[in-house]
Amino acid sequence: MGQNDHCTQMCKRVLKLDASNEDATYMLANLMLMKEQGEGTTGPSEGSQGAIKTYIDLLEKEPDNFNILANLIELLKRAGKIAECQKYIENAETKTQRSKMAGLAYCKGLYSRYNSEPQKALRELNFARYDNFYGESAITNMIEIYLNPANDMIFSSQLEIDYGTTVENIQAARELMEELKGKGVDTSIIECQILISTKQKSSLEEAQKTLKQLLAKNSQYVPANVCMGLCLFMLKKSSDARNYLKTVIKNKYQLQYADFFEQAWILMADYYISVNKYDLAEGELKNCLKYNKSMIKAEELMGLIKEKEKAYVDAADHYSVAWKMSNKKNGGVGFRLAFNYLKADRFVDAIDVGKDILKVYPSFPKVQSEIIDKARAKIRC
After folding, report:
1. Of 80, 113, 308, 322, which residue has the fewest beta carbons closer than 10 angstroms?
2. Domain for residue 304, yes or no?
């Protein structure tokens, strides 16, 4: 409901009665991060440090408590510190009993997903998917990876998008969705996401019909509004699409719908960039980064705005953050970074990024001819 102050009070009351309550600890830690970021602070302030330290202290007592570790991974992702997860996973691995292997696999899968390693994530999550405790969440994560392996935008009016979904991926997502149905999970939104991922007009119209039925029951339902906005953008009905997204972003942020809020802000920013309203776009992107400092696409679009303004040094700064966040795996971001280094006369840096791209994607188009060769020629001059 967005009533964060009341939520904080209730969590504190719970923790007075039960100091080790994991759910209340996780919720309070997130609230601390949200409050800090909402106040516009930068750097590792007491708010974020306190939130994360709460979980680290719990893990020191019980390194293989994978519910706590999974929550810490989510928390570190939002704080922009995903690289710090590795040491806690390694520490847990040395202490894990055979009966807890599914929990370890689930945490490894989450970390790999957020570290831009989708194939590795799928392997780990597939092991966890049969577990009674982690299975449902593991399957949901697997579906999301299959539908968007590159964790990119499915639609953009500005960027060339290759989010890596194939016919085989969509079929795998459908099979996993049936597993969730068998567990009694409401898969209405997942079904719409699968239909939207096909990008076929008939499927988009089918998704639109289902979403209208969901919104007739609850016009404020965040996932349905965001999916409808995306669907309508893809059907080239941008005016209607924006109305659905505005229904979401005018409301207070709700943690349980974090991914959908982020998607709404990103889609609105993409639209504003397309009509040259850069200040409005930056406002949406700042909202996104306020709640998730690991949001690669938000930093990428910030870079795109600066690039369009011919502020190449500033553009490179944003692209550099996005490139590091992607674990140097997002070739499109790497190319934009190298291009802006070239424009900013940072020729050696442009060559280094170009080489990093080719290590992962040896045939990535134009890197050799448009970046590396041109930068070398500039150096020789």
Report:
1. 308
2. yes
Long-range Cβ contact pairs of 95-102 (< 8 A, separation 24 or more): 95/63, 95/64, 96/64, 97/64, 100/64, 100/66, 101/127, 102/127, 102/128, 102/130, 102/131, 102/133, 102/134
Tens-binned pLDDT, residue by residue, of the chain (381 aa)? 778 899 999 999 999 999 878 888 888 877 877 775 444 434 444 445 666 787 888 888 889 889 889 989 998 998 889 999 999 999 999 988 888 899 999 999 999 999 999 999 999 999 999 999 999 999 999 999 999 998 888 888 777 666 667 899 999 999 999 999 999 999 999 999 999 999 999 999 999 999 999 999 999 999 999 999 999 999 999 999 999 999 999 988 888 899 999 999 999 999 999 999 999 999 999 999 998 999 999 999 999 999 999 999 999 999 999 999 999 999 999 999 999 999 999 999 999 999 999 999 999 999 999 999 999 999 998
DSSP 126-137: HHHTT-TTTHHH
Of 363, 365, 324, 319, the residue nearest 340 (C-alpha): 319
Q: Is residue 373 part of a domain?
A: yes
**Is residue 357 located within the same domain as residue 279?**
no
Q: How many domains, in total, are found in the chain?
A: 2
The answer to whether residues 254 and 305 belong to one domain is: no
Would 244 be classed as within a structural domain?
Answer: yes
Q: Kindly report the CATH number assigned to the domain that includes residue 299.
A: 1.25.40.10
Q: Of the candidates 288, 316, 348, which is a domain's last residue?
A: 288
| 352 and 333 housed in the same domain | yes
- Tokens 């009993």 sit at which residue? 97
Structural domain for 249, as ranges: 205-288
* Rounded-to-integer distance, Cα 13 and Cα 16, Å: 5
Domain boundary among 240, 263, 288: 288
